[in-house]
Task: structure prediction
Amino acid sequence: GAVVSQHPSRVICKSGTSVKIECRSLDFQATTMFWYRQFPKQSLMLMATSNEGSKATYEQGVEKDKFLINHASLTLSTLTVTSAHPEDSSFYICSAILQGQETQYFGPGTRLLVL
Amino acid sequence: ILNVEQSPQSLHVQEGDSTNFTCSFPSSNFYALHWYRWETAKSPEALFVMTLNGDEKKKGRISATLNTKEGYSYLYIKGSQPEDSATYLCAFKGNGGFKTIFGAGTRLFVKA
Result:
C-alpha cells in the first residue's frame, strides 16, 4: 500500500517552454503532498507543501510564479515549471503523507533537462 | 539554519560485511528522525521512524539507534548483501511544525 507515482520520469525540453510533472497517490488519499528538488550529491530540498484545495506553501527562495503547484484532488498534485531555463535542470521528486502520519511516501522522481 | 549531516558520503563493502553509518541532526526541538532506503531508479521507501531518545528499531538485518540528546542516529546493516546497495537517507523533523530536513545520504555499494 501507499504507492505514489510520478510522471514523466524523464523530460527534455527547450528553454522557454513549460513542463508539467504529475504526482499521484495510487491507493490512498493524500491531503498533503510535498515537492522536492535535488541537485547532484546534495540532499532533497523542499520546494513547497501542497495541500488539497488550498494554495501551496512555498519555501523561502522558491518562486511561486515559476513553479506552479496545483493540488486539485486528494490523489493528484502537479508541478509546472514555467518558462524553463537550463538552470531549472534538476531532479524533482514528490511525496505524500497519510493523514496523521509523518512518514513520507515518495514517487520515483522526474529528471528534467532544459536545453 | 538546521543541518542534517550524513557520513560517510559513500561506502564500499564486501558481501557478508557488517557496516554502519551516521546521521547527525540538531539536538534541540527534536520531534522525529526517519530513515529511508533509496534504490537507483526507484522511490525512496521508509525504513524506520524514531521518536524517543534511546529508541532502537530493527527490520531484518537492518537496525537503527537514536540519541536525541547528542543529536545522532546510527544505521547498522549486518551481513551486507548486494541487494542492500542503495542510498540511505535520514530526515529530521523538529517540534513546532517545522519542515522535514533531509541529509544528503550515504551511498552503499555491496560487492558480491
In short: The longest strand of chain A covers residues 90-97. The CA atoms of residues 6 and 23 of chain A lie 5 Å apart. Chain A has a mean pLDDT of 94. Chain A touches chain B through 19 residues (CB under 8 Å).
